[in-house]
Design brief:
With 253 residues, the protein is mainly beta. The chain contains two helices and 17 strands. Strands 1, 2, 3, 4, 5, 6, 7, 8, 9, 10, 11, 14 and 15 form a 13-stranded mixed sheet that branches. The model has no long low-confidence stretch (mean pLDDT 92).
Amino acid sequence: MRIARAVVGGEPQHVRVDADALVPIEDPYVALAAGRDPADLGTPIAATDRVLLPPAVPTVLVGIAQNRGASDHPSPVQAWLKSPRTVVAHGEPVRVRRDAGRLVVEAEIAVVIGRDTGDPTAPVVTEANAHEFMLGVTAVNDISYPDRAVLDPRNFESKGGEGSTPLGPWIDTDASIDDLELALELDGERVRDTSAQAMPVPVREAIAYVARWVRLGPGDVIMAGAPLSNHEASAGQTAVVVVGAMRLETPLR
């Protein structure tokens, strides 16, 4: 199922994407907790009438650094927090900072947590069962200003700009986190082409790691990192992140 959020009757509403229409559905997190698919609630909305929102509203937004080396002593998983206020929707223009140096767009797989991961001091999430705690996956563009990282190793400035986390357009509840296409396009040209299998830190390992340190709940998001899927960009370009069948478009202004 493809789950999105849209403005319906002036209010945010979960919907499922069905061809060229959106069908209002019940809260998918409540349905997941009950062990079933979310039920339809209303009449399909024509594509011309829809206004898509970010598909998740995270309280916790975590990034994974895909910098594990190929040496005999690989680096441990490294995670960092990003402000949920940086999340914007598919197609929403992002204003590029002119005072932060180079701009880099990063195509990443984003995991949307579906249920409480429990007390981190008594962990229940493992690599083997990580998929059971997911609602699904979506696409994310982790917009960065790497020149700021020299003075800011915690990514507050380099990744915390307004609109620096485009997310969407929907959540795919059926996609595999083990072998998922990941690509980046700039102005229609494919500049990066990889997959989840190329990640030095597998998505399952990232989920289990984060859950051992931070309690996650419905709607929280883990950005799985950019394994050779980032590229410099500039204002005036349009970046497209490809995750499986999803295409997340971000006009840079």
